[in-house]
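Data follows
____________
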Amino acid sequence: MQIPSAIVTLVLGMLLVLGGLWIGQNINLLPVDASTNAPIYDELFRVLFSIGTILFLGIVGLIIFSLVRFRRRPGQLGDGLALEGNLPLEVFWTAVPAIVVLFVGLFSYDIYERMGGMAPLSHGDHGGAMPAEQRIWGGIGSSEISTTSSTSLLQPLPVEVTAMQFAFLFHYPDGDIMSGELHVQAGRPVSLRMEAKDVIHAFWVPEFRLKQDVIPGQPTVLDFTPTRPGRYPIVCAELCGPYHGGMRSTVVVDSADDFNAWIQANRKPPVQEA
């Protein structure tokens, strides 16, 4: 007894979807997660990876099936059948992608909001009154900064980031420290206020799952909480000139004791009055 093609198509479709979901949930292509933002972003990555796997396997499988099933047989000299129009198929391949794109858009918005991208940025002035011409232009001003600071003894660490061709400079107002590396404390919220001196740069730490443009004349913010001690690369992810590929730095996530020792070792001594 021949199985109807509709049932075969349904079964293959179910296997394809289940296989894509399994691959998306069980195969991790991302680097180690080292911030509180990372697990939130990873949710979106798993969904996109699952959808991409389903599309890739489905399209490749359909191409291979078509090459085998509709290949030219020995002795066939004429053209194939002229097929014109298939309304149910056209409705299907229009409706399904539209639903998928709408779902991805809404889910992406939710992820961005949970990471702090839609949070008010009035706290980005690092404790001082910011003139209107220096107001924050945009960024991820995570709500975890205000929430954590109200329930924990650890206050957010403010750092001023300056990007220029082709380096990042980090200034710590507390202690007036200038550094070529970003030192932060594991478990302590960090609030970066970033501005470029020449062209548009981008501050990207793959292990934090964070990337934010650094724009001349328009300060941006980036708030996060590191969770895993270690050294992680900071990469400029915006083409900024001939040495763009060499514009790198390092974020060093220290334990509390190591971070305090670094602060004390690099803090400028107080000015002695005459």
